[in-house]
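Can anyone check this?
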Amino acid sequence: MSDLYARHKAVLPDWLALYYKDPLEITHGEGRHVWGDDGRKYLDFFGGILTTMTAHALPEVTKAVTEQAGRILHSSTLYLNRPMVELAERIAQLSGIPDARVFFTTSGTEANDTALLLATTYRRSNQILAMRNSYHGRSFSAVGITGNRGWSPTSLSPLQTLYVHGGVRTRGPFARLSDADFIAACVADLKDLLGHTRSPAALIAEPIQGVGGFTSPPDGLYAAFREVLDEHGILWIADEVQTGWGRTGDNFWGWQAHGRSGPPDILTFAKGIGNGMSIGGVVARADIMNCLDANSISTFGGTQITMAAGLANLSYLLEHDLQGNARRVGGLLIERLRAVAAQLPVVREVRGRGLMIGIELVRPGTDEAHPDAAAAVLEAARAEGLLIGKGGGHNTSVLRIAPPLTLTVAEAEEGAAILERALGSIH
């Protein structure tokens, strides 16, 4: 055990998860690579849990942060804040939500917590519809709506949560149906559920479930849900903490794959927009955002230094068409990994969009989750210089691949080759 690991265990919670049998300290990074305290260079396919979205030590973001730090770091929302207004203007325009208002937080957890506050206040209801296999953060209200037992440490909650089918296409009672029949069955289930309860405040859903293992429904499910929700006045909250900013390649926001019935009423974001700086936020129609009848502030939400980083990162992302790069390079990577998986009985499915890819592992010859294999592949990939993530619903058996969006074709091929060897080492 390293000295730092021993110190970590002595002062931090037991439930603060660490990867690897011999936990890694990352000392610095550049581009798509990081260096560990062991002196090794690693190709980073997880980006601080999808947070270093553009690149490590991106010069444009580093310059913006340095220049802002030389002026003022922070003043709170009690004072006018030019970088916050400028970033809010850009996000409001990009969100697709009409007459949008933006509130900045420090994390995705806090963003979802705020969205729940807005929805329940606006609708005067504490009932929330959520998806099975979902994850929305670690606050008291967020774990109460999280449909993933591994990340929900208590059943106590200020909210009454009702779970809906549809977040996982290839498992569950509707898995064998066609896409159209799958959507119809999930909609029928939603209608039946609403016939047995008081009217909920909102449905909260990740367009692609992150911690759940990068699972998703067929395109159009949430558009079909939206038609039913609108009949009851129920709001739709799109949790875009992991799917936003072009990561899926096909769309800038995950909700746009379900956009037939219009944009969500509330959109939450975080992670990648700050490229490692702590930014989260909520976008909502003005009548929803302004429904609170008491004062509020955000001490650290929208602070000048994080807003400077967000502005620089968003500008870089748009100017360099990183959404297009995610679509092109991610498409090549997915196909390469599917070709590898076809030869390996331990792989049940390779799924995803753009640079958001999941590899689900099972015990060969069964449909049973294989968390031991996932842990072993994580270790084997690290041994060859590749960092990846893991997740999954009933058991942690999905490898999560989410590199920075500037990933090159050569780096994608390098990572795929390492994964091929790591997966092949599992017996």
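Reply from J.R.: I decoded it. The longest strand covers residues 347-353.
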